[in-house]
Amino acid sequence: MLLPPKRAIIPVTQGRWNSITLASSHAGPVRTLKASSSLDAEEIEFNGDERDFILSILRAKPSIRDTKSYLASFNPPKSIPTTTPTPATAVSKDDSLSQLQNNPNLAAGVSLINELIDPVHRRTALVKLQGPFTDRQLESVARGMVYLEKLGLVSVVVVENDEWEPGSEMEREEAVEDAMRVVAALEAQGARARPVLDTIVRLGPNPNDERLCEASGNDSSGVWTPEAHSLAEDLTHIRSALQASEIPVLPALALDSFCRSVRISANDVIAALTPTMVEVGTTLDTSSPSAKKTVDMTPLRLMIVNREGGVPSYARSGLPHLLVNLSSEYEHIWDTFLPQWRSSHPTALGNLALARTCLSYMPPTSSAVMVSHRSPSSLIANLITNKPAQSSSLPHALLSGAKKLTRDTPTLFRYGLPIRVIRKAEEIDKKKMTALLEQSFVKTLDYDAFWKRVDNTLDFAIIAGDYKGGAIVTREAIPSLPSNTSETPRTMAYLDKFAVLPSHQGDGTVDFLWVALHDESYGLGTQFARNFIEGSMQGLGRGEDLVWRSRGDNPVNKWYYERSSGHLKMGEKGEWVLFWCDAEDRLKAMENAIRSGNDASESLPEVIRTKKGPVIRGPGFVVAEEQGRLDKWARIVNKIPSSWVNK
Length: 647
Known about the structure:
Elements: E1 19-21, E2 29-31, H1 50-59, H2 64-73, H3 95-101, H4 104-107, H5 110-116, E3 123-131, H6 135-150, E4 153-161, H7 171-188, E5 193-195, E6 202-203, H8 210-213, E7 228-229, H9 236-243, E8 247-251, E9 253-255, E10 261-263, H10 266-281, E11 299-306, E12 323-325, H11 326-335, H12 341-344, H13 348-359, E13 367-372, H14 377-385, E14 411-414, E15 419-422, H15 430-441, H16 447-457, E16 458-464, E17 469-478, E18 490-500, H17 509-520, E19 546-551, H18 557-563, E20 566-570, E21 576-581, H19 584-596, E22 607-610, E23 613-616, H20 629-638
Parallel strand pairs: 3-4, 3-11, 4-8, 5-8, 11-13, 12-14, 18-19
Antiparallel strand pairs: 1-2, 6-7, 9-10, 13-14, 15-16, 16-17, 17-18, 19-21, 20-21, 22-23
Helix pairs in contact: 6-7, 6-14, 10-13, 11-13
């Protein structure tokens, strides 16, 4: 077994600190060894070049699953025959794309572009433009919405301005003026936009919506009640604009009980439109010959474009949440929202409530994204992949360099599934868990043998929803040395099973599960683990290494490589891979010891001079307490029997 050298320079992405400054006056600043970060793709504004649109698609890096899911969302109803794009709209005829085809680095994406652009069946997105924006900012945002339209997603825009004064005598005129400004910006980018100045929502809750009638304001369950509603007949102007291939732009106006047009919050307008658009979208007459030109009004996305960026997270030192499971994290975000954020992000919680309310009506595959006007390209990435800018289950140390988080990194919301932790084997619904495992692994579980072992060794299990996903962690005994029979028996945490139903793969469930797994095992005791889900340790405790194995040909291994601290091939032909995640609080303690010069093996941090400046030499890959642990883990894991019936 080959191991890296004991003394090695560890880049930030591997590890154990971000930056260190020496106390010595002549040494100067010391930094860890990493490449200088290039311009973050999220911070690039669209420059008007058609090639920028193509690059923004390729920059999203959609997987095969992402592409198939995207195309499935825009497939026409089965009763409607599909049509082949005309040569005039085929991307391969575009001059700018021809130039891209000559570039070998981009040629692989040409077929993907041809598939994605100009679908016959179009969907809608509800877009909240939360200004004020400068002309340059509005131009960039408008171009992003035009690009979304090319990909088949037509925006229904509601305009709001944070600088509006409540109760102003000119409130209606101000709302109309801002809406017309957005219309002009869209048309300047080549889109066809239509101002919808008639009030299409009405003040007061919808008397036909039982869910809203039962709630009032922000109740204990976190349900926010909008102050307006709409009916199917109110959407005539929106439907007309969509059928005419125009982007409807609405001022935030509503009709009061005296038939007066009054300005209200854009959140109320969007929340009023969502259930009605879902109702209308699912009852379209797809059998009529003209249906092929009809846009499905069921919202596929909710997009909130503002100046604040995403929802700040205390665990990320105020940087945005990447992915939020509204079913299990909503109340926790409210409870941990720091007072200073109410001035820096004054509308974050209101937009969070809007996302939860809208997604409760929208299809399960839908999502909401809160994004800064500085990263409009994120809207395209979200549409194609339906994923956050970076996976929320990645190690925090990896979210740097090209993957760095910034204030403008968007927050993605999924309605999600409730997550809970079970610590007693008898509380697991074994029939449902068995069905989950067999559908996920496409194998037959050795029921009696597997559950007998789990009953004796279970540490905890994590369940997503009604067994839509799950993880089982057991405690495996570590044999003591024969010469030390008095030693207290030790155990290790072993991830026995990690599974998600095929129907929920790609919808964020896998990330929600892994984050919960992190919080209950190797991330326990850190600030990142203080998520208050049912049955969890709530971040209180001491983290420990997590170990698991996977077959060498498992396609999921790439995902495991990104999240593990290391891996080791096992077996005569390397047919198994042993993965592990180091306990983060232990790594933090080692880092602090090196910073202070109190490490047992080092009196002071060692500095290396490089062409780019001084860097500090990191701790050994294998410290004293880690000696021999891989061999020990491998021996234990190899003795764990298979869970499946041999065919």
